[in-house]
């Protein structure tokens, strides 16, 4: 069968987020029916022509089970990235979980930087300027919408 392994042993609630431009954090929960000794391993492939790599820095729970991974120096490509989490246990075969993800869709943007406000009391106006957030996947200025909340004190 395609899904060899015990039902309910694959991980659940897999999700990843890219933040601080270069870091990616992926987390998951152990399968509901996975044996207590199950250990999980994450592999990912940024694109079809790059090789598959295992997580180098696992996040562990109180039972030393891998429940996440921190990646450093992640760059976003054009293709979807492939993620695979498989598991091993002495007691039974563990089902794997896999997913293709567009990395640009999971990037959490940095706030705008160098915000300056110059007000002219005589003209009764203010000029607010900022630099757009840094993003990892492109240098384009398009696609940014800003919202300014001004509270008068």
From TrEMBL:
InterPro entries: FN3_sf (IPR036116), Ig-like_fold (IPR013783), Short_hematopoietin_rcpt_2_CS (IPR003532), TypeI_recpt_CBD (IPR015321). Coiled coil: none annotated. The keyword Membrane applies. One of its GO terms (cellular component) is external side of plasma membrane. Gene3D superfamilies: Immunoglobulins. Its main location: membrane. Keywords: Glycoprotein, Membrane, Receptor, Signal, Transmembrane, Transmembrane helix. Residues 13-106 form the Type I cytokine receptor cytokine-binding domain. GO terms for molecular function: cytokine receptor activity. It is found in: Membrane. It is a single-pass type I membrane protein. The keyword Signal applies. PANTHER family: CYTOKINE RECEPTOR, INTERLEUKIN 5 RECEPTOR SUBUNIT ALPHA. This is CSF2R factor. It comes from Thryothorus ludovicianus (Carolina wren).
């Amino acid at each position: 069968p395609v899904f060899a392994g015990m039902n309910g042993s694959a991980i659940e609630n897999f999700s990843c987020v890219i933040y601080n431009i270069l870091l990616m954090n992926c987390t998951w929960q152990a399968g509901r029916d996975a044996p207590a000794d199950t250990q999980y391993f994450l592999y990912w492939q940024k694109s079809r022509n790059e090789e598959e790599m295992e997580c180098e820095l696992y996040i562990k729970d109180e039972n030393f089970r891998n429940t996440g991974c921190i990646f450093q120096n992640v760059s976003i490509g054009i293709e979807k990235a492939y993620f695979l989490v498989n598991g091993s246990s002495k007691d039974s075969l563990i089902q794997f979980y896999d997913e293709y993800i567009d990395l640009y869709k999971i990037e959490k943007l940095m706030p705008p930087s160098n915000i300056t406000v110059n007000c002219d009391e005589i003209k009764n106006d203010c000029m607010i300027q900022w630099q757009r957030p840094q993003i990892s996947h492109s240098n384009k200025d398009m696609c940014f919408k800003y919202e300014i909340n001004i509270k008068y004190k």
